[in-house]
């Protein structure tokens, strides 16, 4: 059945066409996102949800969406999506990180000019027939200091436009390197320095606990008198009432505000003040940007729903469409190895180490590790998948580590999953052959070569004569057919293991009978998703 996607915000028709072309059924209901109740009612039918900023994807929406596999944000900010709730349910959240950057940067620059020359007020006055030539005295931008807070995609573009406008650009961003600053032709400074020196301040950070209220009364008091402030990033970065007071007192000469603490903003302390220019979250609203983000989000979502390719996901490593078929057998292998370890472990897991030897070490190991952890946790949480697994492991206090090394044995490469609990360390290794099928090659340090079946009896026993006969007799008596039998041991008379493939799972009674045999230490029925 074709996957179904709901588009619940206004998107370019390009998105709808791309979904259809790629074999995805699509319902385009651009006003639905604003109707919370209606969204809750219908979301259960969909595999994908494409949104902009109007649809609020809360935990409640996610709980009402048992089939949802992907949320695609046609734009950058995902503060309207409860990502931890989505991750817990295994839903991928993706955005389009570059599609509207230039457009938003241009909006910030336009705001800077609009504020410097009081364009909107001058326009309104002129069109009202007042001709107030003396009222609208502006300032030049050339030679002024532009302070950019947040020098990521958009901030860097604004910075480069500022340099082009012959401004002196200074930037604050904890992740900005001196080299990158030099490349952009700007000076890297501390925030206090930026506040002190800038004639224009423009914000381009996400809204986080660190950036919330980054511009409040205290910060404004340290700024140059007559500073002008632009916010085309997120409401919540500026305390609106503090900015309003500062504009009234003349400490701040003007502000260009595209985003608000509460949106849609129908009221704000900034409304009606002289030289405050407001737009209704229009940063990304150009034909070009909307075309870019619509096209990109539809392609990304369809690629995931149809081919399993993951790009620009915020809660899952990327997997390209070219990579997906090569990675798939190793994803399966990693999941089976994790599942093997998880099913055999009955006490809390403290740590898991995933070793990549040879070929798989050159692949996307973050995706492979996510699959191994998903397999490991499946014994406890049925709904876990590659998206939710890393978060669930973290929540359970499981330390996850990855080791990669060059090919070291006869295989082109293999994966080994080692788990540590308070009582023991247990490992299982496997590889895939050219048929793409997974094989176990080592269990608990004992070499063997065994393919993977749906139902598998695992026994650990002492290496003494007669064990195989005893097990075989018990199976014969119970009329149970053995599909395949693999054995391995460490040393003569030491520890041995057997993996026995069956057509059906064994009953607990039969397992107890096996456990009652002298030489058998452990007998466990394992099930694999093959
Ligand atoms: N108005 C709009 O319509 C519109 C359109 C697009 C994006 N946005 C918003 O613009 C913002 C920037 O988007 P982007 O694509 O440039 O994001 P980005 O992730 O590329 O850049 C954000 C930068 O902020 C920096 N940063 C993080 N914490 C910081 C802190 N405490 N102080 C200073 N810098 C910090 C990061 O290091 C990063 O370099 C986002 O909030 C996004 O949602 C708004
Ligand atoms: O983060 C973004 O991409 C912008 O805020 C754009 O939001 P919009 O898609 O609702 O215009």
Topology of this structure?
Layout: E1 4-7, H1 13-21, E2 25-28, H2 36-42, E3 48-51, H3 59-63, E4 70-73, H4 83-88, E5 92-95, H5 101-116, H6 119-127, E6 145-149, H7 153-164, E7 168-172, H8 178-184, E8 187-188, H9 191-197, E9 200-203, H10 217-221, E10 227-231, H11 240-249, E11 252-257, E12 276-278, H12 287-307, H13 323-344, E13 349-358, H14 365-377, H15 389-395, E14 399-405, E15 413-421, E16 425-432, E17 438-443, E18 446-451, E19 455-462, H16 467-478, E20 482-489, E21 495-502, H17 508-515, E22 520-527
Parallel strand pairs: 1-2, 1-3, 3-4, 4-5, 6-7, 6-9, 7-8, 9-10, 10-11, 11-12, 13-14
Antiparallel strand pairs: 13-15, 15-16, 16-17, 17-18, 19-21, 19-22, 20-21
Helix pairs in contact: 1-12, 5-7, 13-14, 14-15
The structure holds nicotinamide-adenine-dinucleotide and 3-phosphoglyceric acid.
């Amino acid at each position: 059945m074709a996957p179904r996607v709901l588009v619940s915000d206004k998107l370019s028709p390009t998105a709808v066409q791309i979904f259809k072309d790629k074999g995805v059924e699509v319902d385009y209901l651009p006003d639905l996102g604003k109707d919370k109740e209606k969204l809750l009612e219908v979301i259960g039918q969909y595999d994908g949800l494409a949104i902009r900023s109007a649809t609020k994807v809360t935990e409640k929406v996610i709980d009402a969406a048992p089939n949802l596999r992907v949320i695609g944000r046609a734009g950058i900010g995902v503060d309207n999506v409860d990502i931890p709730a989505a991750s817990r349910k295994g839903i991928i959240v993706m955005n389009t990180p570059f599609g509207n950057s230039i457009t938003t940067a241009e909006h910030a620059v336009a705001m800077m000019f609009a504020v410097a020359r009081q364009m909107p007020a001058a326009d309104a006055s002129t069109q009202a027939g007042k001709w107030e030539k003396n009222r609208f005295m502006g300032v030049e931008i050339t030679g002024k200091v532009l302070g950019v807070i947040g020098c990521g995609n958009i901030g860097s573009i604004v910075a480069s436009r500022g340099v082009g406008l012959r401004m002196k650009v200074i930037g604050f961003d904890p992740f900005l390197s001196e080299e990158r600053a030099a490349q952009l032709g700007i000076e890297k400074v501390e925030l206090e320095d930026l506040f002190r020196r800038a004639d224009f301040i423009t914000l381009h950070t996400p809204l986080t606990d660190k950036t919330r209220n980054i511009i409040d009364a205290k910060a404004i008091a340290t700024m140059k008198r007559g500073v002008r402030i632009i916010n085309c990033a997120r409401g919540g970065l500026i305390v609106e009432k503090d900015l309003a007071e500062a504009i009234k007192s003349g400490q701040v000469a003007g502000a260009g505000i595209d985003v608000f603490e509460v949106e849609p903003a129908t009221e704000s302390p900034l409304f009606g003040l002289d030289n405050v220019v407001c737009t209704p979250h229009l940063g990304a609203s150009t034909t070009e940007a909307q075309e870019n983000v619509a096209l990109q989000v539809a392609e990304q979502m369809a690629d995931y729903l149809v081919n399993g390719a993951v790009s620009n996901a915020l809660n899952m490593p990327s997997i390209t469409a070219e990579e997906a078929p090569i990675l798939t057998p190793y994803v399966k292998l990693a999941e089976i190895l994790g599942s093997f370890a998880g099913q055999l472990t009955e006490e809390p897991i403290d740590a898991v180490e995933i070793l990549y030897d040879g070929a798989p070490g050159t692949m996307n190991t973050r995706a492979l590790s996510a699959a191994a952890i998903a397999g490991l946790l499946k014994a406890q949480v049925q709904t876990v998948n590659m998206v939710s697994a890393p978060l669930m492991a973290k929540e359970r206090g499981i330390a996850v580590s990855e080791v990669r090394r060059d090919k070291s044995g006869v295989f082109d490469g293999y994966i080994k999953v080692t788990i540590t609990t308070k009582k023991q360390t247990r490992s299982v290794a496997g590889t895939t052959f050219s048929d793409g099928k997974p094989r176990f090659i080592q269990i608990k340090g004992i070499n063997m070569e065994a393919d993977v079946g749906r139902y598998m009896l695992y026994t650990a026993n002492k290496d003494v004569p007669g064990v195989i006969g005893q097990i075989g007799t018990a199976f014969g008596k119970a009329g149970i057919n053995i599909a395949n039998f693999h054995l391995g041991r460490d040393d003569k008379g030491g520890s041995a293991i057997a993996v026995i493939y069956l057509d059906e799972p064994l009953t607990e009674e039969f397992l107890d009978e096996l456990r009652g045999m002298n030489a058998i230490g452990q007998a466990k029925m394992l099930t694999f998703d093959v």
